[in-house]
Amino acid sequence: MAFQQIFIAMKNVAGLKRGESGIITGFTDDIISLKLMEMGCLPGSPIKMNFAAPLGDPISYDIAGYNLTLRVAEACAILIE
Amino acid sequence: MKTVRKIALLGNPNSGKTSLFNQLTGLNQKVGNFPGITVEKKTGACILDNGEKIEIIDLPGTYSIYPKSLDEKVVFDTLTGTTNPDHPDLAIIIVDASNIKRNLLLFTQISDLGIPVILVLNMLDVATNRGQRVSPTAIAKFFSVPTISLNARTGQGLELLKKALEIHELDAPKSIFSTTKEEQDLAVAITKRFDIKNSYFAHLLLIQYQNFPGLSEEDKFFIKALIEDNKFSPELSQSREILERYKVIDEAIQEAVVYNLYENRNFTERLDKIFTHKIFGYAIFFGVMFLIFQAIFAWATAPMDWIDSAFSALSLSIKSHLPSGVLTDLLSEGVVPGIGGVVIFIPQIALLFAFIAILEETGYMSRVVFLMDKIMRKFGLNGKSVVPLISGVACAIPAIMAARTIDNLRERLITIFVTPLMSCSARLPVYTILIALVVPDEKVLGILSLQGVALMGMYILGFVMSIVTAAILQFLIKAKSKSYFVMELPLYKFPRWKNVGITIIEKSKTFTFEAGKIILAISIILWVAASFGPGDKVKNAEEYVKKSMNGAEISDEDFEVKVSAFKLENSFAGIFGKALEPAIKPLGYDWKIGIALVTSFAAREVFVGTMATIYSIGSDEESTIKSRMRSEINPDTGKEMYTPAVALSLMVFYAFAMQCMSTLAVVKKETNSWKWPMLQLLYMTGLAYVSSFIVYQLLS
Lengths: 81, 700
Description:
The complex is a heterodimer of chains A (about 80) and B (about 700). Chain A is about 25% helix and about 35% strand. Chain A has about 80 residues and is α+β, with helices and mostly antiparallel strands. Chain A has a single domain (about 1-80), classed as SH3 type barrels, CATH 2.30.30. In chain A, a hairpin with a 2-residue loop joins strand 4 and strand 5. The longest helix of chain A has 9 residues, at about 30-40. With about 700 residues, chain B is of the alpha/beta class. Chain B has 4 domains: about 5-165, 3-Layer(aba) Sandwich (Rossmann fold); about 180-260, no CATH class; about 280-475, no CATH class; about 500-700, no CATH class. Helices cover about 60% and strands about 10% of the residues of chain B. In chain B, strands 2-3-4-1-5-6-8 form a 7-stranded mixed beta sheet, with helices on both faces. In chain B, strands 7-9 form a two-stranded antiparallel ribbon. In chain B, strands 10-11 form a two-stranded antiparallel sheet. In chain B, strand 5, helix 3 and strand 6 form a beta-alpha-beta unit. In chain B, helix 18 runs antiparallel to helix 20 (about 450-475). Chains A and B meet through helix 2 and strand 5 of A and helix 3, helix 10, helix 11, helix 15 and strand 12 of B.
């Protein structure tokens, strides 16, 4: 139970609203995390939600000084605080 | 023997790599293939100030040396395969200074491989505008690497780069990333077995052995055992490596970059508000597509008409000035119309590639990918499939190669399968001529050309069919790995006209010579097949016709027409077309169209050339292909041959049928099996037959 509560308490990037930002703390998917880290999504870096595509997916984020677009499923794999 | 030094050009996507390549090589470019695979390989010669000629290899853009897609694997193979013929003596790494952190990752990896490196800092002006002052000297000092600041758009700094390229004995850069004790032990075991000197190379072999070029099964087994025995985790090691590298990069940035808090990205932000807007975003996208088709029809028709009449005039003048004989006939009826059939496409091809190059150059193409991803996913495709599909409008061959950027195998296969259904530029002349025959040249709503609307309709038909096919395929092809979508949205930029110009020239040149060879060869073969026949029927056509007239009086002119018709009917081509006629009659076609269908199986663009050849046999008048086709009479009805039903049925056939050997060859190479091209051939041709049948039967 305690573990689940911790898990729920962890926010991910997909929950960010337009203009909101957070600090990356980790990833929930090992494979995709490698690609994301290469692209500059490093633990400790800030990430800001820019805007979503008209159909709500994918979403454009501001990371390491550029615009990166991710699908909602990938954004869910990035944990933030 | 003095060998030409090979210089690899590397960098992130959108870092200005293509601009730099164009600056270095100008029009001395060659497009070929990397050995064994069909990734388009662009190489170019560059003459340095001291007279030395070097070869520049433009490698695909990549963010990291670890390949995620086939495109990136080329980079990995070229840099790690020491026996690879393209293995560079030196690497130029171009870095977007406005995005320096992420761009430096690739640099640190390549310099650890021990390949001498020249670092090029591009877009320093953009960085300054965004409030980041990057110091090239501090970067050069930190990494102890020759660093050159350069503006790839204007060419400023190019002379310095060329000077630096004159240095032969450039030191291998100092090592940046250090492996752990555990990784070192494993790397030592690797270096011993494989005779490798560089330790990062050994490290890469350890992590990427399944992807490594030229490894035997035993070698792979050896590494696999090594990994398992030592409980080594490649993923963990790789993520540690990325973090480690970014730590070093952060230190470099601390010393070399001064950030002002002021950040100016308003231009891109404001444009994105419009281009990715719920309504305007899609409206603009369709507007842009529509503009392209209108432009192609409106702007290209005039030069195409000139080319058409110029070639028919040339045919006529050859006929009247050279002594009559077989050779003159071959020239005027085979070769000249054949070449004309190639040259006539150039205006449209140039325009199409110009638009596609501008969409890519400005950064708008990435927005289209972003807009379309969710919709495309519903059909088993990926947002990135938009690029192959749109490029497919120009030519399916580069388009299918562009599908390489799609990392997911299933989405890539579906994209490859449906891309040839997009109406490529080779279908354009077929549509053009048939639309001109049956669609009146009128305006709708005052400004739009009705013929342009009809043309756009054909393109929409192709697009809809490719989407429908994709939707069906996603149930038939099983997903092996999870699909993902991680893409950069680059800043909007004004297009570099030099890059657009080079694209136009290169693509038109490739088309003219590659397609031209086939078209010319087929035109000649066809002329021979249409001018000779078995027995003496063709040779003594006059007598046969006279005999069949039973002494009836007709004018000389009508007699000539009857004779040439008789000749064609009894030629090899005519016999072949007649044999085919029962199969294509339900679609509304006669044996002459049958000949064109058969020759089109080599390449569709042959259609117009074939029509030109068939209808010019025995004709002395100067007339264009269009007017010859218009005056063609259907012997069964006594009315014109090209009724709307026949023309539409033909257009639908050409829209769907797989009639391009080059596409089949590329699909075979790209998918590495005959299965996909064969399925494509069967599916598309079957679809074409059934659809044309329905269209003709409904309309006639």
